[in-house]
Amino acid sequence: MQTIQEYVQSNKDRFLEELFALLRFPSVSADPQFKNDIIKTADFVAEKLRSAGADIVEVCPTAGNPIIYGEKIIDPTLPTVLIYGHYDVQPADPLELWDTPPFEPTIREGKIYARGAADDKGQFYMHVKAFEYMTANDALSCNVKFMIEGEEEVGSVNLGTFVKENRERLKNDVIVISDTSMISLEQPSLETGLRGLSYVEVEVTGPNRDLHSGVYGGAVANPATILAKLIASLHDQNNHIAIPGFYDDVVELSQKERVALNQAPFDVQTYKEDLGVAELWGEDGYTTIERTGIRPTLEVNGMWGGYIGEGAKTVLPSSAFAKISMRLVPNQDSHRITELFKNHFEKTAPKYVTVKVTPHHGGEPVVTPTDSIAYKAAEKALEEAFGKKPIPTRGGGSIPIVALFEKELNVKTVLLGFGLDSDNLHSPNEKYGVENYLMGIQTIPAFFKYYAELSK
Q1: Is 386 helix (H, G, I), strand (E, B) or coil?
Q2: Which of 12, 97, 361, 455 has minimal CB crowding within 10 Å?
């Protein structure tokens, strides 16, 4: 029997080439033109699960993109681990900002550059390869199920229906998700919470057509200008969100909890240098770690209107648009926040324009327990692999299905992520460390081992 370290070392090149093949599929869920690539990606993942040793593998159709389900039940009396991941990716735009093609993976300085490298192909595929090792070496200590979906980047539109219709099939003792980050390879960490999400699109309309900015400028309200003013009014001078009722349900951490959270290694100067900014910005009274983990936010994700092509065209636009996301913390409710935003935006709009707020998707914030068997197993696995006890952290991103799983399947989730915050998720030049990928494969079997031991 090979150790996991020996197995990874002897199969390193194959593990990388298989991941590269997965990354070459442009499985962009937001754009219908990539539908065929979505199907091809799902088939590829299903085939790799079969070859890794799964006894049952199905590509399950939904009203949108297919979900891959796989399982290997070695003993019904043993605990069952459900692995969740997603094979869809964000759009690669703007393409001109990529140093190498987004769907042609390239290794530079020990990092794999490609769309989906860290989010989430590289991370969920670690589990497939760890599963391969455990089945090949008779080291599988728990039953295992896989559910890999293709709509996470557009709000997991059809996952809720699939979960409700397959509760018995998906029955498990713990869900493991690797779609989060750790502090570094030198200091491992475990995320113990995720923020929720409310995502909306706003439209501000003035005249019934684009107008000549010389003939009509100064006489008719410019929707782009009004939109900018409305957006600027959403924060006050202390960078607090200025929507009435927005903070009503926010759970404030105790001073002791805040001190513990800020124990995580963090260098402000390095952070600024990595981002290329002279100063940081955020809600007064909170550290950067707190602002990105335990505080809600409101951010503009995109704005457009009028002429944005090459050269000049002097128009006063008929309409202007923006996409806005709000990250939420316990106990905020995404539906209530969406309604508060809609009411506020409509109420504050001046009478010389009309506004429309269109909700897109959202999800609820979650906090995972740190005293559970599953968390302790993950903690021991990381300590064994990295030689250092992981630090508990709060994640700034959102994985809406974590709350869904807890509601529908009545189980908790462990966020066993191996990415880094600097991996350029959702940005050009997304990357994932080769060592992160291989260390993830080495750590996962230890989680299974310790979870089985602690569950006895």
Answers
A1: helix
A2: 97
Q: Phi/psi of residue 385, each to 5°?
A: -75, -40
How many Cβ atoms are within 10 Å of 55's Cβ, its own excluded? 11
Q: What is the pLDDT of residues 440-449, one digit of tens each?
A: 999 999 999 9
H helices present in 105-158, as ranges = 122-136
pLDDT of residue 282: 96
**Residue 316, pLDDT above cutoff 90:** yes
- Measured from the Cβ of residue 207, the count of other Cβ atoms closer than 10 Å reads 17
Domains of the chain: 4-194+365-455 (3.40.630.10), 196-250+296-363 (3.30.70.360)
R_g of the chain computed on alpha carbons: 23
Distances (CA, A) of 4 to 74, 146, 239, 432, 439: 20, 21, 49, 21, 10
Q: Which long-range contacts (CB under 8 A, 24 or more apart) does 356-359 make?
A: 356/202, 356/203, 356/205, 357/200, 357/201, 357/202, 358/200, 358/201, 358/202, 358/203, 359/198, 359/199, 359/200
Whether this prediction's pTM lies above 0.90 is answered by no
Exposed / middle / buried, residue 408 (Cβ in 10 Å: 0-12, 13-18, 19+)? middle
CA distance 320 to 222: 9
How far apart CA 141 and CA 135 sit, in angstroms, is: 10
Range with the poorest average pLDDT among 108-112, 216-220, 338-342, 361-365: 361-365
